[in-house]
Amino acid sequence: MQNFLRQMGKKATAMTLLLSFAVTGVATCGVGVEKAFAREDVVTRAGMFTDSTGHWAAKDIEAAAKNGWIQGFPDGTFQPEQTVTQEQFLSLIERVLPSFTGHEPDAFIRDTYLKQAEGRWSEKTYTHLAAAGILPTGKPTDPMNRLEATRILLAALGHQSEGEKYRGTKAKFFSDLSTDDEAQVMIAYPAYKMGIMAGYPDGTFRPAEKISRAQAVVLVNRLERQIHELYPGTVTDVEKQGMTKAVSAFVGIVMDQEQIRRYDDLVSYVKKNKLPVTESFLREHFSFMQYEVYDYIRFPRFNELTYYAKIGLGKYRMTVQYYSGELGGSVDKTFYLSSMDGKTFRLIGKDE
Asked: What whole-number distance in Å separates Cα of residue 327 and Cα of residue 65?
């Protein structure tokens, strides 16, 4: 799963614009697409549109409008059945995600994923999300299809790794998805089980089917709900800062400052310096060092998309969704920590 985005790439923020036109895909009233995206003068009263009343997605459309994620066209319509492009879908996703600083993409990312967005209204969105490993595999103006949208949603939730559970499975969830197509299975199956993307009554998934504006709004509302469900508890800014500092400082010391490359040396270093790190944590994140020759997926810089959760008395979870370089591609990595005061943290294993 970690290599899927990289393989697809080889084959194939802050937005300052109102999302009213970040989900708009055609010229309106004689205004071209690029100009339409730049307009900021349309306000829809209470999220109601002249063509959304009675629509199957009316409640989702109204909720998204009230949250400020979408607005309508100058004529008061939303045009719910209009197809959404990749850049429009990414802009919508960006609106819902927690804020994160990000960093400048490397040359490989720019050449492989961002080149076609250069000079477009969506360039800042593409650049911002690239740090989080949320990257499309087509052109910005290509229609967004269900499989691509599903992959992006999994990344936005920091749950791409869920696909590993279905590697090699023979279970058939959908009549139009072959278990021989592992890449599709590892995207569709976890999203279906998590309730992110549903199948159709006839038992199909329809991976190539285009996403409409209404469907995009429904998906982004699901994304918001899933974020709250997957990352529970109230984590203060002080706790977030302490968690991030504890993990990033340890990774920095091990990989950059001390340049430790053998697991036994790492264990010895931790014990000698009496660092607040358990062996379970070391095994979960540094077991690759036990091999004579190894490749490792680059650790995050910790300014990428990060989710924090309080999962028990004094126990926390931090998930970072990021681009780990050409070797690893788009990756999510989860760290567990404990703390009694919410200021000093111990790095622990998942089951500790």
From this structure: 40
One digit per residue, the tens of pLDDT, for the chain of length 352 reads: 444 444 444 333 333 233 333 333 322 233 333 333 222 233 344 457 899 989 999 999 999 998 989 888 888 899 999 999 999 999 999 999 999 999 999 999 999 999 999 999 999 999 999 999 999 889 999 999 999 999 999 999 999 999 999 999 999 999 999 999 999 999 999 999 999 999 999 999 999 999 999 999 999 999 999 999 999 999 999 999 999 999 999 999 999 999 999 999 999 999 999 999 999 999 999 999 999 877 778 999 999 999 999 999 999 999 999 999 888 899 999 999 999 999 999 999 999 9
Residue 85 dihedral angles phi and psi, to the nearest 5°: -90, 170
Asked if 139 and 13 sit in the same domain, the reply is yes
The total domain count for the chain is: 2
Distance of CA 303 to the CA centre of its chain: 14
If asked whether residues 226 and 242 sit together in one domain, one would say no
Q: Which residue has the tokens 């927690």?
A: 98
State the Cα–Cα distance between residues 235 and 221, nearest whole angstrom: 22
Are 244 and 302 in contact, with CB atoms under 8 Å apart? yes
Please choose, from the candidates 212, 219, 180, the residue with its C-alpha nearest in 3D space to the C-alpha of residue 197. Answer: 219
Residue 344 lies in a domain: yes
Whether 72 contacts 20, CB under 8 Å: yes
> Quick check: is 73 in a domain?
yes
Q: Which one of 230, 263, 282 terminates a domain?
A: 230
Q: How many Å separate Cα 78 from the centre of its chain?
A: 26
One domain, residues 105 and 12: yes
Phi/psi at 91 (nearest 5 deg)? -65, -40
Contact in structure between 199 and 174 (CB atoms under 8 Å):
yes
Residue 13 sits in the same domain as residue 91: yes
Distance CA 15, CA 70 (A): 13
Residue 217 lies inside a defined structural domain of this protein: yes
Residue 323 φ then ψ, to 5°: -95, 120
- What range defines the domain where residue 226 resides? 4-144+210-230
pTM, to two decimals: 0.85
Verify that 245 and 98 share a domain, yes or no.
no
